[in-house]
């Protein structure tokens, strides 16, 4: 330069591309300022660095490639081996920072050095029967109330007939007095005719003297005309004479009596009514109309 006071300005930049616009602000000791604008022209070749992907590929294909520092590199993990799953990305360089290290497909900014990145796979945990996977641990399966563990599944508890579920246990059903168990339900006991319920049992009804059983009720015995109650039986009324002596048979004559047992003679009554006709040992009622 012809100007002895000319100054050489050296700039260091992390990354620059051909065609970038660069503006430089210059000031002197008197704070006079000037902005100089340059259009950047790349003269020469920037160094490139190798990327090696283990168990994965670089975006665009292949497991290795050369890249400029500052480039965004995309990587995708291979399909996991049998009974394994993708876990995370790792690198041999602390300068590699993954956008999401736990995603099978992610990116990182290329540092100014060769790097190696690795897709890491972990075995799928298989828990023994009765346990389940909780994060990376196998823990005992705890079933909610009313369910029980069968293998590694919680299933509803079904109680056998005659039992009911209390919490997670089947317990025998106890019916209150006057009821009986039918299947798994308590139902009122219905006694058959002629029996009555005592507690939870049906027992035969016993009527007192002078009463008889009708259905399931004791009712007073009513004898028909010409009979009287003897214990619990109706028996024919004895035919008595005025002196209250049993009149024996007079030969084979037919003798007539009123319903009081008073003899009326051997002539058949003519007045309408009910009479007793006795012939020998045979006695019957007759009606005169």
Q: In words, what does this structure look like?
A:
There is one protein chain. The protein is mostly beta strands. The chain has strands at residues 21-27, 33-39, 48-54, 56-58, 64-68, 72-77, 84-91, 105-109, 115-123, 131-134, 137-140, 147-150, 153-156, 163-166, 169-172, 179-182, 185-188, 195-198, 201-204, 211-214, 217-220, 227-230, 233-236, 254-257, 263-265, 273-279, 282-288. Strand 22 and strand 23 (233-236) form a beta hairpin. The termini are far apart.
Note the gap between the termini. Answer: 173 Å
Mean pLDDT: 84
Number of helices: 0
Please compute the radius of gyration using only Cα atoms.
Answer: 60 Å
Largest sheet: 4 strands, mixed
Task: Give me the count of strands.
Answer: 27
Helix content: under 10%
Order of helices and strands: EEEEEEEEEEEEEEEEEEEEEEEEEEE
Q: What strand order characterises the main sheet?
A: 5-3-9-7
Shape: rod-shaped
Structural class: mainly beta
Strand content: over 45%
Show unreliable segments.
240-251
Helix-strand blueprint:
Layout: E1 21-27, E2 33-39, E3 48-54, E4 56-58, E5 64-68, E6 72-77, E7 84-91, E8 105-109, E9 115-123, E10 131-134, E11 137-140, E12 147-150, E13 153-156, E14 163-166, E15 169-172, E16 179-182, E17 185-188, E18 195-198, E19 201-204, E20 211-214, E21 217-220, E22 227-230, E23 233-236, E24 254-257, E25 263-265, E26 273-279, E27 282-288
Parallel strand pairs: 3-9
Antiparallel strand pairs: 1-2, 3-5, 4-6, 6-8, 7-9, 10-11, 12-13, 14-15, 16-17, 18-19, 20-21, 22-23, 24-25, 24-26, 26-27
């Amino acid at each position: 330069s012809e100007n002895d006071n000319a100054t050489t300005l050296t700039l260091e930049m992390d990354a620059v591309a051909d065609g970038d616009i660069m503006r430089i602000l210059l000031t002197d000791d008197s704070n006079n300022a000037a902005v100089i604008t340059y259009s950047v022209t790349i003269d020469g070749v920037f160094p490139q660095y190798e990327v090696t992907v283990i168990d994965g590929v670089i975006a665009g294909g292949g497991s290795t490639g050369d890249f400029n520092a500052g480039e965004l590199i995309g990587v995708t993990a291979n399909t996991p081996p049998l009974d394994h799953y993708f876990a995370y990305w790792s690198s041999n360089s602390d300068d590699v920072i993954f956008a999401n290290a736990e995603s099978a497909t992610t990116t990182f900014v290329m540092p100014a050095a060769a790097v190696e990145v690795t897709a890491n796979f972990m075995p799928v945990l298989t828990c023994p029967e009765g346990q389940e996977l909780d994060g990376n641990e196998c823990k005992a399966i705890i079933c909610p109330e009313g369910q029980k563990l069968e293998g590694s599944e919680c299933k509803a508890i079904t109680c056998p007939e005659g039992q009911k579920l209390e919490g997670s246990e089947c317990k025998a059903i106890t019916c209150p007095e006057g009821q009986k168990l039918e299947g798994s339900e308590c139902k009122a006991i219905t006694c058959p005719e002629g029996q009555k319920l005592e507690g939870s049992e049906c027992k035969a009804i016993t009527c007192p003297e002078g009463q008889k059983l009708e259905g399931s009720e004791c009712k007073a015995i009513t004898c028909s005309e010409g009979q009287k109650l003897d214990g619990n039986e109706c028996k024919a009324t004895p035919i008595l004479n005025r002196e209250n002596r049993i009149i024996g048979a007079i030969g084979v004559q037919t003798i007539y009596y009123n319903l009081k047992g008073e003899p009326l003679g051997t002539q058949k009554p003519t007045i309408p009514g009910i009479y007793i006709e006795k012939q020998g040992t045979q006695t019957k009622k007759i009606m005169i109309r």
